[in-house]
Design brief:
Elements: H1 12-17, E1 28-35, E2 42-43, E3 51-53, H2 58-68, E4 72-78, H3 95-107, E5 112-117, H4 139-156, E6 160-163, H5 170-180, E7 188-194, H6 201-206, H7 226-237, E8 242-246, H8 252-261, E9 266-269, H9 272-283, H10 289-303, E10 307-309, H11 313-320
Parallel strand pairs: 1-3, 1-4, 1-10, 4-5, 5-6, 6-7, 7-8, 8-9, 9-10
Antiparallel strand pairs: 2-3
Helix pairs in contact: 2-3, 4-5
Bound molecules: ligand PBG.
Length: 321
């Protein structure tokens, strides 16, 4: 026997030297929820360890994230009042825009401060867009709202706009609105291949979503691989600076496809349900929490993600350091 692959597995030092995939703190992005109002942070029961911050309680969390050396944060707003058009989204006094100003002032030079650009946290019906007279999500009217939201986020100091609504043409529309207002250098992260997934379940609690039904008329069918690649290509053509695949673990094939051909960076979002499953199993003692977390993130990087959005970003970065 000449070929013995086990030779390179024999010591920790050798294994470290021949590892193909590394996770660096700078590859990790922390999603953060910020709710309107004061008081203590509110725990999210389906995401143990994750809270809804206030604009005060987020400050020490931001400082810890910066000290851990992660790449950035992705902000989500949890408003007190919602309405049919999601008017809190483009209101400069709306919670997401206020939180963005706070984050940009606190850590804007150390971390890339990113914002979720979608209406679902702000609409009383919970959809990612506005509805037409029949109650269907109106694609083109929604893009008008995204244009306004993009300008509000730009003015609040967001450094990367995360377009997660899955409307057709949203990247081109937002790019046009930004450029017309002089924000030619503000980049767009397109949630290009975002699937209609059950793994968003805990997120709905996190943002107190009012959604009834599902998002299958705009998010992708989990069965479709080719279509995920097509969505990424369309978003690149429309000017996306980074494309994303979401969720991560059940869509590693799509991620690998996109990573193999994308001319721009490819990110993946390890979503709330992925977080909740590992936390729940670990809490039962059924899996080793730290090893499961590390394996999940390295798998997503191995499949082709240049960066990973994960609720464990800071903890993992602290382990690596
Ligand atoms: C929509 C949005 C969602 C998530 C991020 N952005 C929810 C959805 O599409 O239903 C889910 C993130 C997660 O589950 O961690 N603004």
């Amino acid at each position: 026997m000449i070929v013995r692959p086990r030779r390179l597995r024999s010591t920790p030092a050798l294994r470290r030297l021949v590892t193909e995939t590394r996770v660096h703190p700078a590859d990790l992005v922390l999603p953060m929820f910020v709710r309107e109002g004061s008081g203590d942070p509110v725990p999210i029961s389906s995401m143990p360890g994750v809270v809804q911050h206030t604009t005060e309680s987020m400050k020490p969390a931001l400082a810890r994230a910066a000290a851990a050396g992660i790449g950035g944060i992705m902000l989500f707003g949890v408003p007190e009042h919602k309405d049919a058009t999601g008017s809190g989204a483009d209101d400069p006094a709306g919670i997401l825009n206020v939180a963005t100003r706070v984050a940009a002032a606190e850590v804007g030079t150390d971390l890339v401060v990113q914002t979720d650009l979608c209406l679902d946290e702000f609409t009383d019906h919970g959809h990612c867009g506005v509805l037409d007279s029949r109650g269907a999500v109106d694609n083109d009217a929604t893009n008008e709202r995204y244009r306004a939201m993009a300008l509000a986020q730009a003015e609040a100091g967001s450094q990367l706009l995360g377009l997660s609504g899955m409307m057709d043409g949203q990247v081109a529309e937002v790019r046009d609105a930004l450029d017309a207002a002089g924000h030619t250098d503000l980049p767009i992260l397109a949630y290009a291949a975002k699937y209609a997934s059950a793994f968003y379940g805990p997120f709905r609690e996190a943002v107190q979503s009012s959604l009834v039904g599902d998002r299958r008329t705009y998010q992708l069918d989990p069965a479709n691989r080719r279509e995920g690649l097509r969505e990424a290509e369309v978003d690149v053509d429309e000017g996306a600076d980074i494309v994303m695949v979401k969720p991560a673990m059940s869509y590693l094939d799509v991620l690998a496809d996109v990573a193999a051909t994308s001319p721009v960076p490819v990110w993946a979002y390890q979503v709330s349900g992925e977080y909740a499953m590992i936390e729940a199993a670990a809490a039962q003692g059924w899996i080793d929490r730290r090893r499961a977390i590390e394996e999940s993130i390295v798998s997503i990087r191995r499949a082709g993600a240049d960066a990973v959005l994960t609720y464990w970003a800071v903890e993992v970065a602290e382990w690596i350091r």
